[in-house]
Amino acid sequence: MGLELTLIPIAYGAGTHLWIGHSRIQLDSDYALFAQIPGCHGRGEQYPRKPVAESRKLDHFTEVGTWVGEGYKHVREDPYGLPLEYMLAKGLGRVDSSDASLWNKAAFTFIRALPPMTPVVLWWN
After folding, report:
1. What is the pTM of this model?
2. 48 burial via Cβ count (<10 Å: 0-12, 13-18, 19+)
3. Fewer Cβ neighbours under 10 Å: the N or C end of the chain?
4. How far from each other are the two terminal CA atoms of the chain, in whole angstroms?
């Protein structure tokens, strides 16, 4: 089983203690792409870490409301038990997806179209 990443753009609640992210964008597994995103380090990546921007951890009071497994849940940790991290769309949009799959290219086109200060949660699984 390889490393996977789902991007969860926050639609509502940024600046509060409950962020709502109804949209989930499951990326195709791509270690060269993932190496540009902070947070993959220590999760089995095969490439040197070259993050394009910094990620931030959620504070201890903030939860993300999203679809997980079989239902809608409020979560603070990823399936590895690590605190959730996020990047702003303007930073995540710097990922070079030019050599990525068509699906991943489309996902990053979407991220670049978001308002720049939109938090995007990194759901590593």
Report:
1. 0.90
2. exposed
3. N
4. 10
Q: Which residues, in sequence order, are CB contacts of 25 under 8 Å at separation 6+?
A: 6, 7, 8, 9, 107, 110
**C-alpha count within 13 angstroms, C-beta hemisphere, residue 92:** 32
Q: What angle do CA 117, 80, 118 make, to 5 degrees?
A: 5
Q: Give the model confidence (pLDDT) of 93-121 as tens digits.
A: 999 999 999 999 999 999 999 999 999 99
**CA atoms of 85 and 88, how far apart (whole Å):** 10
3-state secondary structure of 74: strand
Residue 83: Cβ within 10 Å count: 13
